[in-house]
Specification:
The structure holds 2 protein chains of 2 kinds. Chain A is mostly helical. Chain A has 9 helices and 2 strands. In chain A, strands 1-2 form a two-stranded antiparallel ribbon. Chain B is mainly α. Chain B is built from 18 helices and 3 strands. Chain B has a 3-stranded antiparallel beta sheet with strand order 1-2-3. The longest helix of chain B is centred in the middle third of the chain and has 31 residues. The two termini of chain B are 20 Å apart. The chains are: A mainly alpha, B mainly alpha. Chains A and B meet through helix 7 and helix 8 of A and helix 5 and helix 6 of B.
């Protein structure tokens, strides 16, 4: 029995290349932005990295695109470990709610078994408006980014969508974990665009290092944000 | 490896590691930081360059180029860093401050030395990301400021990555686009509206030594980076210049609103800093040589002013007036602060001089730099580059006036004796009064004799840009 090669895997996922991959990237990015449960957001980010890899195949050597996917999943792993260490943004088990009474809890609405953040409708509206803008931009190939007009519309959709949703994620959240996910979405979109311009291995390695470093910074800030002294501050 | 490149890239990393190991002992770490900074300043000055004025080392393809301009700039920065570490010796800060500052200096130097420009933004991003760690300073409070700083850096750097690629591709037909991209990136990195939010967060949440490092030392290096890219692009995009000028004007307006509603001194300082940052952004729209020289002058004046402010606030904190000047997320209790200027006149005078200098009021250090910047902006308009200097000057003056009103309002409050706070704080020690008095005299002397530091700043600017 032989282990499937990169090319075998790409052949299996061939049906997803092009528009399906771009739409999947957008959908996963939307989930990252709207999910209030960190696990769900991280899983969506990991899925986003998978689908964006399928778009990279059109501009980079397939063996190099795997590096992009691996880096992305490594980033998700780092953030997952960090999130686990800070109890996924919840109070640690041994800290009682009375002890942190001065910390204002996020307002939530009950929808059956789910407790939905009160800010969710506003976020959803912002995401929908942004998606409309992105779709409108995609229809105009000569608007905006350098050389992107020459690329396939699915590619443009993914680039604009990721960068736009990433910026929106930064704008709507000050909390380092969720803002950090927005940052990673923005970086992912920019890298996808930049891969059209620059395909050298050195730059690929450098951008991979940048991703890991940004993830490290986010992890550090999350650790500090959810340290007990901050909770009791 | 050449000695200059080693001193600027490898040595700070080793020093940062030692500082991290010593992190438990704040004063020892500060002594290490001071010693290393002074040694680096000294040895950097003794580096002899080749006949062509540069040292070049190739690393995996790209080259690291050490020039006389980089040498002069970083000598100055390391000297200022030594002074800043002296503050941390007297007033210990968080455990990661010294190590973090040392660590940031290495990628900052690389960002200015590496060629081709394609790779320089990566190192600047690394430096700014590590600056977020410095802002955090190992404390729980300033996370919001650090997150915003990191976000701004990650959003701004791609513009320079793109510009670096365009410069490397040497596409003459895209010269205009390159200039536009660089100018838009500079709008983000230099905290023009609407990317100014992280700056006000840093003032609100981070301790004063962090302000000096972020808005003085790091900003000078970032500004040098921006002007280097502009020099390499060798083109001007009028549309982007208009956007930058608009952003500066709105930044002044934001400063007006901030200071008009200031009931805490942090808000007033944040507003005054925004005024200065708005002016700095305008220097990017000027012709290259003039703009860079003006920017350096503004930043040197800002550095000195921030050092004054940091000293004043740290002195106040040491004299246990921390309820007033709370650096953590503890809301200050205004009731205990009334009349503090009667009990601590010299310290509050130092704070006052710092604030008005940041605003650029006449007879302060800041006035010389602000006046020069306005003159250059008007001169550029007369030369036909733009015709917006009129309304920009109005917005600037409005911001300064708003700051002055806020300053006077706070001064009256702090000068009004209060029965509640009487006797709650000891009076200033006589040596402190002598020291602060001498500092105030020095500040006044530099303000009335601006040619002393203006000449130094101009020489620094010229040597950096001319050496390439």
């Amino acid at each position: 029995m032989t282990f499937p090669t990169i090319f075998d895997w790409l052949e299996r996922f061939d049906f997803l290349r092009g528009y399906p991959a771009a739409l999947a990237v957008l959908m996963s990015a939307v989930v990252v932005l709207l999910a209030w449960e960190w696990r769900v957001a991280l899983f969506a980010l990991a899925a986003q990295y998978l689908f964006v890899t399928l778009l990279y195949v059109d501009v980079l050597d397939p063996r190099l695109t795997v590096v992009k996917a691996l880096v992305g999943w490594f980033v998700c792993l780092m953030l997952a470990i960090t999130a686990g260490q800070v109890s996924w943004g919840r109070l640690p088990e041994d800290v009682l709610p009375d002890e942190v009474a001065q910390v204002a809890a996020e307002r939530k609405w009950r929808l059956g078994p789910l407790a939905v953040p009160a800010a969710l409708p506003l976020r959803l509206a912002a995401v929908l408006i942004l998606l409309l803008v992105v779709i409108a931009l995609t229809q105009q190939p000569d608007s905006g980014l350098l050389l992107l007009g020459e690329m396939d519309s699915s590619f443009r959709l993914a680039v604009y969508g990721l960068m736009g949703l990433g910026l929106l994620g930064l704008a709507v959240s000050d909390e380092p974990f969720l803002a950090g996910l927005g940052l990673l979405l923005f970086l992912s979109g920019f890298e996808l665009f930049y891969s059209v311009l620059e395909q050298s291995v050195l730059m690929l390695a450098v951008l991979a290092a940048v991703n890991l470093l940004v993830a490290l910074m986010i992890a550090y800030l999350v650790q500090k944000r959810y340290a007990i002294p901050a909770l009791l501050d | 490896m050449s000695s200059g490149i080693f001193l600027l890239t490898v040595a700070p990393l080793l020093a940062a590691f030692v500082a991290w190991l010593l992190g438990r002992w704040a004063r020892l770490t500060a002594v290490w930081g001071i010693t290393f900074s002074l040694l680096l300043w000294y040895f950097l000055g003794r580096v002899l360059l080749a006949v062509d004025g540069r040292e070049v080392v190739a690393v995996l393809g790209p080259e690291v180029v050490f020039t006389a301009g980089v040498q002069a700039l970083f000598q100055f920065l390391w000297l200022v860093l030594a002074l800043l570490f002296l503050f941390t010796f007297i007033f210990p800060t968080g455990s990661t401050f010294v190590a973090g500052c040392l660590l940031v200096m290495a990628p900052l130097a690389l960002a200015l030395m590496i060629r081709p420009y394609l790779f320089a933004p990566i190192f600047l991003l690394l430096a700014l990301g590590l600056t977020a760690v410095v802002i955090q300073d190992g404390q729980a409070g300033p996370t919001k400021a650090a997150t915003r700083m990191l976000a701004t850096a990650v959003v701004g750097i791609p513009f320079f990555l793109l510009a670096g690629w365009l410069l490397s591709a040497q596409a003459a037909s895209l010269a205009g686009a390159t200039s536009r991209i660089i100018l838009l990136g500079s709008l983000i990195l230099l905290a023009g509206f609407p990317f100014h939010v992280w700056a006000t967060s840093v003032i609100r949440h981070a301790p004063p030594p962090v302000w000096v490092f972020v808005f003085g030392i790091v900003q000078l290096a970032v500004t040098a980076f921006v002007f280097q890219f502009l020099a390499a692009s060798n083109s001007v995009d009028d549309q982007a210049i208009s956007w930058l000028r608009l952003s500066s004007g709105v930044t002044f307006l934001v400063a007006v609103l901030l200071m008009a509603t200031a009931v805490q001194v942090h808000r007033l300082i944040a507003g005054a800093l925004l005024v200065d940052m708005g002016l700095l952004l305008l220097t990017v729209t000027l012709p290259l040589d003039v703009g860079w020289e003006t920017a350096v002058i503004l930043l040197v004046a800002r550095l000195f002013t921030l050092l004054l402010l940091a000293l004043a606030l740290l002195l106040l904190k040491k004299q246990e007036v921390s309820q007033l000047f709370s650096f953590e997320n503890i809301p200050p209790t205004i009731g205990n602060d009334q009349g503090v200027a009667c009990r601590l006149p010299f310290t509050m005078a130092l704070l006052g001089v710092g604030i008005v200098s940041l605003l650029g009021v006449p007879l302060t250090i800041g006035f010389g730099s602000h006046w020069l910047a306005l003159q250059m902006i008007f001169a550029a308009d007369l030369a036909g580059v733009e015709n917006t200097s009129g309304w920009l000057a109005v917005m600037f003056l409005l911001a300064v006036f708003s700051g002055l009103v806020a300053f006077i309002r706070l001064t009256i409050y702090y000068l009004t004796p209060s029965e509640k706070s009487a006797g709650t704080t000891e009076r200033e020690h006589v040596w402190l009064r002598i020291g602060v008095g001498m500092g105030l005299l020095l500040a006044t002397w530099l303000a009335v004799q601006p040619q002393i530091w203006l000449g130094f700043a101009s020489d620094l600017a010229r040597s950096f840009l001319s050496s390439g």
